[in-house]
Write a structure and sequence with these properties.
Low-confidence stretches: 380-391
Number of domains: 1
Strand content: 5-15%
Radius of gyration: 22 Å
Order of helices and strands: EHEHHHEHEHHEEHEEHEHHHEHEE
Helix content: 25-40%
Distance between the termini: 37 Å
CATH topology: Cytosolic phospholipase A2 catalytic domain
Largest sheet: 10 strands, mixed
CATH architecture: 3-Layer(aba) Sandwich
Shape: globular
């Protein structure tokens, strides 16, 4: 093995592989770069789940054969970042002026193959509208780039999340139970008031990020549980510099809001999985007469012997990108984010810290190779694991 080669995946490491994609608008090209690295590894996902722009990337991945996925992702991202004919944006060096111009262009004219502003007649003649933009272009793009018959053939598990506008309930659209259509993907990214709610079977749905910006919990806790290696690709990062002006304040505010919810969800899942191992360990130590008590039987249903490795890949820009970074769709910025995702994923695969033996007392561990150059796992306090085989 050379210094730069990715360690081979041993046959003993038999965890299923999941890919979890967070929402984040224009930042989503980072996820495409991550997938490009995974596509050349021995860790192709068998389950991909996404929210908002993560749902779009997930649909392109699940809706194409493996050898075409990166090409289709690139076609999507290059298509929606094509400069506007009305106000072209330079494809040169990325400056703060470049970013502001690009985001303003997106607000005024939309993005090709993605969304367009409502016609002025809606505003001037009393028409009732519930969004600033029309996303019909996105439906056409999805129909062109995604084979929904392939998704519904269930070769790969596919899940996206949205929020029911009427009830406020979180809903998952999963090809294990639902025939997936473009509308399911669009619903997951229908962020109000910019984008309109999407009607599905008589109900209307908004962006799943209104409730949770990551589908990690759904993948990890789905029953029956399987031991999994999950690549969690986030687009907002918790750590950052102290802001020095109002633009940096608004950018930092957005990062903290979205990343804190993801971080809290990850910490909770890791803690709960270790609790499940504790329950299983205690069950093995109970005498038979105590196992027959209602309390013991109730707790037994929560026990678990599966193990989870959660690998975090987080977009951490090296410069301040402003509060409008998630709708800054310039071609140059898209390419830079894609390249960073590719580099970060390759570095993570080179380290492959999940190949270290799982301590028997641990149910779940998380890795952030780019934050910790040693790839040290972040694990909860040791828990007693048992030998049961339920869940």
């Amino acid at each position: 093995m050379t210094e730069t080669s990715i360690p081979p995946r041993p046959s003993s490491y038999d965890k299923k592989v999941g890919l979890v994609l967070q929402g984040g608008g224009a930042l989503g090209s980072y996820q495409a770069g991550v997938y490009e690295a995974l596509s050349a590894s021995e860790y192709l996902p068998d389950w991909v789940a996404g929210i908002s722009i993560g749902a779009v990337n997930a649909a392109i991945i699940a809706g194409n054969p493996p050898q075409e996925r990166v090409t289709r992702l690139r076609e999507f991202w290059e298509g929606i970042t094509a400069p506007s004919a009305l106000w072209p944006v330079s494809d040169g060096p990325i400056t703060s002026h470049h970013r502001r111009t690009s985001s303003l262009t997106s607000m005024l004219f939309g993005q090709p193959g993605f969304f367009a502003p409502r016609a002025p007649t809606f505003w001037f003649f009393g028409g009732k509208v519930t969004s600033y933009y029309d996303t019909a272009y996105l439906k056409s793009t999805l129909e062109r780039l995604v084979d929904f018959d392939r998704i519904n053939a269930r070769e790969m598990r596919f899940s996206v999340a949205a929020v029911n506008v009427r009830t406020g309930n979180f809903a998952y659209f999963d090809n294990a139970a639902t025939k997936i259509r473009p509308e399911h993907v669009m619903a997951s990214g229908a962020l109000p008031p910019g984008f309109p709610a999407i009607e599905i079977d008589g109900e209307h749905y908004w962006d799943g990020g209104l409730v949770s910006n990551t589908p990690l919990q759904y993948v990890v806790e789905y029953m029956p549980r399987r031991s999994r290696l999950v690549f969690q690709v986030d687009l907002f990062h918790a750590r950052g510099r102290l802001p020095t002006d109002l633009e940096e304040v608004t950018e930092r505010d957005k990062d903290i809001r979205y990343s804190s919810r993801t971080r809290a969800a990850t910490d909770m899942l890791r803690h709960m999985h270790d609790v499940r191992h504790n329950i299983n360990g205690l069950w093995d130590q109970l005498p038979e007469h105590l196992r027959q008590t209602p309390e013991a039987k109730f707790l037994y249903n929560f026990g678990c012997v599966t193990t989870m490795d959660i690998v975090q890949l987080i977009y951490r820009p090296t410069d301040n990108q402003g509060h409008s970074k998630d709708y800054e769709f310039s071609r140059a910025t898209m390419k830079a984010r894609w390249a960073q995702g590719l580099a970060d994923a390759r570095a993570t695969l080179l380290a492959s810290p999940w190949l270290a033996p799982m301590p028997p007392e641990i149910g779940a561990r998380t890795f952030d190779v780019l934050r910790d150059s040693h790839g040290k796992a972040d694990m909860m306090m040791p828990a007693t694991s048992g030998k049961g085989a339920h869940h």
